[in-house]
Each structure stands twice: as C-alpha cells, then as structure tokens.
Amino acid sequence: MTSESSSLSTTILEQVDMLKDWIDHHLKLIISEENKEEFLSLVREKKWLLIATPPLLMFLSSMIKLYGNYRKVKQIPGGLALFFSPFKIPFLAPVFYMGNWNGMIEYANEKGDGEGNVRVSFVGFNYFLVTRERALMKEILLNKQAFLDKPSIVYDMFNVFGENIVSALTIDSWKRHHRVCNAAFSVENLKYMCGQASKVTDLLTDLWEERLKNGNGEFMFDCDDFSMVTLEVLGLAGFNMSFGVFDKNDESGGKFKDAVEKIFTVGMLMRRFLGGTPILYPLAQRIFGVSHALEIINKKLDAAIEDRRKEMEENIDTFSKSDILSLLVKANSKENLLTDQELKSNTLIFVLAGEEWVIYELAKNPQYQEKAREEIERVLSERIPSYDDYDNLDLLNCIFLETLRLHPAAAGILKQANKTITIGKYTIPKDTIVDCSIVGVQTSESVWPEASVFKPERWLDREFRSKAQHDYSFLSFSTGLRKCIGFNFSKMEACMILARVLKKYKFELLNNEAQGDIVVGSKGVTTRPENLKVKVTKL
Which of 126, 145, 311, 333 is deepest in the core (most CB within 10 A)? Predict the structure, then answer.
C-alpha cells in the first residue's frame, strides 16, 4: 500500500471513530432524564450536525467499501465510481449508466490498459470490462466458464415470472432449463413459426393499407408495429393462441400487449434497481402498474398451461401441437424439471427480440432494399415465404446479421467470478463482475474493417459467417455452451417478416443525421431506435 493510500484509509477510519463516540455520548444524554434540558439545548445548537450525521456516516461507509474494493484490484488499470445508475447523474454517475455503452467503451480506451480492458471499482463490487480483446473473451466464455457464473444483481431482472434459460446463474441451473427448452426449438417448431410469422405479417400489412388510405399514400413507421408482430407470433408459435393484438374488437389483446411491454421495460428496470428493497419494490410495482400487468399476463398464460396439460393427458399418444409451450409442457412432463412460472418465463423471454433496427438501416441504405427485393422476387415470386425458403433468402439473412452487429439487442455478456481466477495477465478476485462487451467487439476497427459502415455483403461468405460466430467477433447470440437457444427462431422470424414487407413497401429515412437528428437507442434492457422517423409508401 502506498503512503498516500495508507494515510487516506487512516483518516477515514479516524473520522468514523470520532462520529461514533459523539453519537454514543449524546445517546446517553437522551436516556438520562436529568440531562434532558441540556440535550434539547444541544439539539437546538447542533441540529444541523444531527441532520447531517446519518448521510455523512453512509457516505463514509461507502468510501470505506469503495476503498476496500479498490485495494483488491488496484493492479488493473482503471478508475472509481460510486454506482451503476439507470440514468446519467452528473458527478455521481456521469459514465456508468444504462444505455451509455459507447461512453463506457470510450472510458475503457482512455483509462484502460491500451487493449480495451478496464477495471472500475464501485461501492458494491468490482467490475472488469473487456471491449475488444477476443483472447480474453474466449477465456471468460469458454476456457474458464466453470469459474464464472451469471451475476444475480444483473440477471435477476429477467426473473419477473421466474428463472429461465437466460437468467439461470450457474451451469447446473442452466442445464435444467436447457434439457426442457431444447425440445421446443426443433425443426418442427421452426417450420410452424415461419408459417405463423408470414400470416401475422399479413395482419400488419392490412393495418398499413388502412394507414396508406388515411395518409394520402404514405405514413410514418411506428416501432410498436413490429412489437405487435413479435408478440402475436410469440402467441401463436409460443402458446398456440392469438393474443388479439391486431383485433380492433378485442380490447383484451391491446391490454395484453401493453402488459407485456410494461413488464419488459418498466418491470425489468424496476426489478434491476429496486428489487433488493422489500418495501419500496412492491410499492413501486403497484404505483407504476407492474403488479396489474403481471395479473393480466398470469391469468392468460396460466389458463394456457392448464389447457395444454389437460389436452396432453387426454391425448398423450396423439398430442402433436408444435408451439413452444406445448413442446415445453410435453418435455417437462417426463421429469417435471420446471415450475409453471419457469415455463412461462422461458416462453415469454423471446419477446425481447425485435426488427426495428433493420428498418432503420434499410431506410438509411436504400440500395440494399432494392437488392433484397430482387432476391425476394427471384426466390419467392408471388409465394408466401416458408421455412424451406430461408436458406435461399441469403441477402435477407445477411442484412439481419449486419444489423445485429451494429445494433445488438444486449450490450454485453456479464459473468461473476465464483473464485479468484486469472484472466490474461490479470488476477480477478472472487465476486468481480466481468463484462464481455458485445457492442465493443462488434464495432471495433481492429476486428471489423470499416466497422461503422453497414455492409451486409461481408456476411455472404458462409465460411466467414460461421467463423465470425465462433471466434468471438460476433456475440449477438452469445457463444459456446450458453449460446442463445432461440437464435434460429429469431433469424427465421425476421427473414419471414422482412420478405413480406419489403415486397410491398418502400422505407425512407427522414432523420437528417448530418444535421444532428441522429437516431439513438433507447436506454432499456434491450435497445430500440428511440427517435426514428421513417416514411412508408407503397411500391
């Protein structure tokens, strides 16, 4: 320890001891009746000190914890911060807050080791960010995965309904979910989903035709439209039931859609930042409508699970439904590994995927709209796309992958050391949170030539496509043992939707990004374009 660090630690401890002695002395005055007047006089004279003491003690306690964390990792280049915030707070959380992923990467480049790695000591924990060094990512996600679990402080927010395959913290817990969920993403389910995605997109285009009539041949793209498609596809492919989100006569469909969006936006963030407060968290859930949203969703999904069980019990030999829930219930019935809450959680987690960023990139780069339409015409002509067409819609798949490279749904893959380990040249103490930055590695010029440029053709080489998804260059679906189980589901769903809408509509970006009207991502669990202005017209 340096003399400067030792002096700082001694000063803080001395201040804490002095405050404790002062409080002990004056608490005795309170208890002593004969000194009551003296105490009241002291309160009048020193009331500012009494008011200031609790927050001051909390601050000093936080500084001691911060210094203690710093001592464990001071050999790693980096800095200090009080806490990770849901939003920017000047002086208190100017860099480390939800959504500021590029700012955190810049911080790593400025304060880190020159290789894009940086250590940040918070009051509650130490944090090690890896932004582009793929060799370290391989150690974290493959070679030493047994010593790195998912941090509950982060992934507990996905447990709104119960633990799921995404939020399972340990390998053993993940295996329990994977044994059941793996059966739900078979070729059988993917074929069923592709058919449903095409049908649901036709419901969307019916809605768009009405808007064209009411808008003199044009209208503004609404990101919620694709959320509706994703949710309805999930209803049909996930639960074999329509959620009614496109049915104007069914109010319950709109309420269900709003409830799901509430859970996966406000609900998750609330659980992330307030979940550890037993009084404040339930109160906030009621105030912001999260409790009511949970009631709406649970009522519908509990009924679906019960119906599926009854159907299977009555027709065990002929039960052949291909939706995710049916396949989950069927697989789970053999060993009863998952609770009903976990079944719901594993099915609903796939609502987080979306295609809004694809529309942004295609509207910004209209030449790829034209190329995609040529491919759609060549492969499909007037047919509706199906599972069997997916491999032939190569450019559409490349467009989706390139969009995910630039706009990944999640910013990073977070782990927490369950013992002290070595990663690269650094000793990582137990309980340190380690973050493999998806945004960092996928937008790094050292990994991707012309990294900031939208170039779908870079994915046309299938050998390169496979390599990028295995050499830690592309992590949008994670990698290794815990690679996203629904990655084919997401890619195929996007392909079916895009094949339908690009055949009929043209998208034009109205944001003047050169003049500062830049499209930015929302600051939530997953990122969506927040201020996107796209004009839609009929071809």
Answer: 126
Token look-up 């910013």 returns: 411
Q: Please, are residues 120 and 127 in contact by the beta-carbon 8 Å criterion?
A: yes
CA distance 299 to 296: 5
Distance between CA atoms of residues 16 and 515, nearest Å: 53
Q: What is the pLDDT of residue 6?
A: 46
Name the nearest CA neighbour of 485 among 186, 228, 234.
186
Distance CA 431, CA 417 (A): 5
Cα 48 to Cα 280: distance, rounded to the nearest angstrom:
28
Least confident of 26-35, 290-299, 463-472: 26-35
Q: Which of 136, 141, 168, 126 is nearest to 431 (CA)?
A: 126
Confidence class of residue 200 from pLDDT cuts 50, 70 and 90? very high
Distinct helix (H) and strand (E) counts, the chain: 21, 11
Report d(CA 412, CA 438) in Å as an integer.
Answer: 5
pTM here is 0.83
Q: Where are the domains of the chain?
A: 3-150, 171-538
Q: Are strands 433-437 and 412-417 parallel, antiparallel or unpaired?
A: antiparallel
Length of the chain: 539
Closest listed residue to residue 294, CA positions, set 251, 255, 326, 244: 255
CA atoms within 13 A on the CB side of 49: 9
The reply to whether 484 sits in an annotated binding site is yes
User: Percentage of the chain with pLDDT > 90?
Assistant: 48
Distance between CA atoms of 261 and 351, rounded to whole angstroms? 9
Q: Which two tokens stand for residue 496?
A: 């079916």
Pair 403, 526: CB distance under 8 Å: no
Query: Which residues lie closer than 8 Å to 213 by C-beta, 6 or more apart?
Result: none
136-145 pLDDT, tens digit per residue, is 999 999 999 9
Highest mean pLDDT among 274-283, 403-412, 448-457: 448-457
**Per CATH, the architecture of 171-538 is what?**
Orthogonal Bundle (1.10)
Side chain identity at residue 226, one-letter code: F
What token pair was written down for 385? 């796309």
Q: Name 535's bridge partners.
A: 220, 508
pLDDT at 1: 45
Identify which has the larger pLDDT, 351 or 435: 435
What strands lie across the sheet with 117-121, from one edge to the other?
78-80, 117-121, 126-130, 433-437, 412-417, 148-149
249 Cβ neighbours under 8 A, 6+ residues apart: none
> Residue 26 pLDDT more than 70?
no
Kindly write down the DSSP assignment for every residue of 358-374, as one continuous string: HHHHHHH-HHHHHHHHH
